[in-house]
From TrEMBL, chain A:
Record bears the keyword Protein transport: no
Name of the protein in question: Multiple sugar transport system substrate-binding protein
Keywords attached to this entry: Sugar transport, Transport
Organism: Microlunatus panaciterrae
CDD domains, alphabetized: PBP2_TMBP_like (cd13585)
InterPro entries, per database record: Bact_solute-bd_prot1 (IPR050490), SBP (IPR006059), TAT_signal (IPR006311)
PANTHER family per record: ABC TRANSPORTER SUBSTRATE-BINDING PROTEIN, ARABINOSE-BINDING PROTEIN-RELATED
Domain of life: Bacteria
Keyword 4Fe-4S assigned: no
UniProtKB/TrEMBL annotation, chain B:
Organism expressing this protein natively: Microlunatus panaciterrae
Coiled-coil features, chain-numbered ranges: none
PROSITE patterns in the record: ABC_TM1
Keywords: Cell membrane, Membrane, Sugar transport, Transmembrane, Transmembrane helix, Transport
Superkingdom, taxonomy of origin: Bacteria
Designated name of the protein: Multiple sugar transport system permease protein
Location in the cell: Cell membrane
Family: Belongs to the binding-protein-dependent transport system permease family.
InterPro entries for the chain: ABC_transporter_permease, MetI-like, MetI-like_sf
Signal peptide: none
Amino acid sequence: MADISRRALLGLLGAGALGVAASGKRLTARDIPGRNTDALNIAILGTAQDAEARQNLVRAFNARHPDIPVRVQAIQGADWSNFFAKILTLVAAGTPPDVCVVATEGAQLFADRLAHPLDEFVRRDKAEIQDYFDDVHPSLLEAFMYQGSLYQLPMDFNAANVYYNTAALNRAGLERPKTDWTQHDFVDYARAMRKGATGDFRSFFWTNRLWGGVVPWLYINDTSFLAESKATGGDWFWQTFYAKDPSSASRSGGYQWLEPNAEDPKVAETFEYLRALVAEGLASSPAQGGGNELVARFAQGKIGMTPAGGFWVQGLNEGGMAEDDFDVSFFPRWRSQRHQFGAAGYTIMRTSERKDEAWEWIKFCASKEAMALAMPDPNTTPTRRSMVNEAFYSGKGPKHWQVFYDTLDRFPTTGPIPAPPQQAAVETALIKNVLGAITGPAAGVPRALGTMQRDLDIALRRKS
Amino acid sequence: MTVTAPTRPQLEPTAAPHAVTGRRATRARKLMAGAFLAPTVIGITLFTLVPIVASILLAFFRWDIISSPKFVGVDNFVEMGTDPTVRVAFLNTIGFVIVAVTLQLAVALGLAVFVQSKMPSWLRTFFRSALFFPLILSAASVSLVMAYLFNQDFGLVNAALALIGLPAVPWLTSPGGAMVVVILVYVWQNFGFSFLLFVGGLASIPKDVYEASSIDGVTGWRQFRNITLPLVSPTLLVASVMAIISALQIFDQPYVLTRGGPGDSTRTAVMVIFESAFQQLQFGRASAIGIVLTLLIMGVTALQFRLSRRFVFYQ
């Protein structure tokens, strides 16, 4: 083998590196999403496959707006707070998106610090956008008002309903729950389901989280862990777009959660109710976790009832459940029968230099055509009432799919999950204290709620 | 007769025909060394030193990424001292370290002694591989699987208990149970490294020491206590220093298994740092907690080396 000098070797390596650098397509700093590009950069929560799945939406948008190139940037996150943290990192890095998907969990955080209000745009394009508002329940819009301004047009939502396994119901000899069944009826149902079951069956399975955890129970008992109030303002919006809606007079400039409310006697009563369910073995002890595990167990018939929204239909179908294997009902009535929901939509970032183009994207996505493209399957609930129809649930169930939108229509006080700008800290304070209250003896409930009150107070007062 | 000094045998050519010599050659070598070291130096500077300095500075500011940092002096440290969550997290971490590291070292040493005992070499190889295996798995994925196993309602562990007539245990939903699971999962996954160190340490003990002690009638536990333990003590020091440093940074297992709950019962110092920074956007507070944790790690390590003078024996 011929000897080669060090200098010659380095020369060869350098030449090779230049050759590689010069040849073919390669990654450069320009390929970092959102950097040095003229495209409207849209951040979504999801994987690269999710971004790819939106390309038909992008194509339809470009057919109408060929002059606005769009880049959908998928950002993965274990949950919404994880996703929001990554968006904030993009902001800090100087490469924020122009438009960002934001759910109720982050709506006020973004409105407070990052988002641009849509007021000027909706006013300007009233004629075009009125069709959307005519089709969407005002509660969903009120959830995205912040201090009198509108920040998002919600595209999909999920209210907490009770899914039940029809086999478990039939085995227990039960009828479908009535619309106004009570919390006592719920206990009777749980007992009857357990009586007829074998193996590791749980009548009621729930997870410890903000959406679908303890909150629906608090809401039906006419309380919450944070004191809810309404901001002034917003009349311009309600009088303009919902003038004919009878509830518009009572609508506001958005929700406010300014004080902790964990020591409210009704909160203690609700926790004691849930604690007793767990202690009797009717309900699971709520562990942390996502929905996939729950879907599998529900599909296997190991769970009688669980809180879920319209997003579950597709998952259960893929899990092998036929239309009549499961059904859905409202949460029971207690002092009230107020339900909870979470929604999501696009928001325009304050830092965007393409706000007009961003609004065109949002306006397009709110159209019926775009929403049909964006939501071909029932893995969420479209905010347009007209889209929640027989055809959407055909072949996948459930039989009473009307429950999803009726949660808003029949219960106008139904509201969003509590999510102030300090939502991440508030959620941590809630979740970490739920188990302490639920799993101990009855005497431990007040102490656990006292700790929750303290933690919520710290979370709401803390400045970044 | 002329005596000539013997010439030194030439082992290597003194210089290549075209090589540069003297000061120029030294400078070229330095340049070459610098070129090879540069990527590492730049990497360490950018990704270790700069963040350390930035973190120390940030601890005296309030900063949420979006707004400009605001100087707050020692407020972050004062708030940290009065925050019950931070206090509990540090106490949990210390308690976890004491129990988990003790268990980890005991299991590792016990198994190392067992594997070094008389057995076929293929069986020894099998044990070494099998016991080291958990260490190469991702802590997050192990914890996810363990969360299924220890699920109160549907987990295999409770199913096994039910088979022998025992009631279901709220492993992850009771404060005591959750910490027990976190410790078990952590120890199961991490003892392999200490185990390998101990296998090496035990192998270095001369056989004749054991033979001499056997002739004197010292066997079994007395042999372990009076010969094995003192002679393996240098390895024990290294293993314990590394185990404590690693355990003080416990995050993955409690984060995936319990998210710090129930209550704050499995919340650890690094979890509070993560939550402060990446969930609550309080980077100053997170930095302050990080500095205190670093000082704690340094203090414990220094203490270990100090104490080692009494307990570590070198041959």
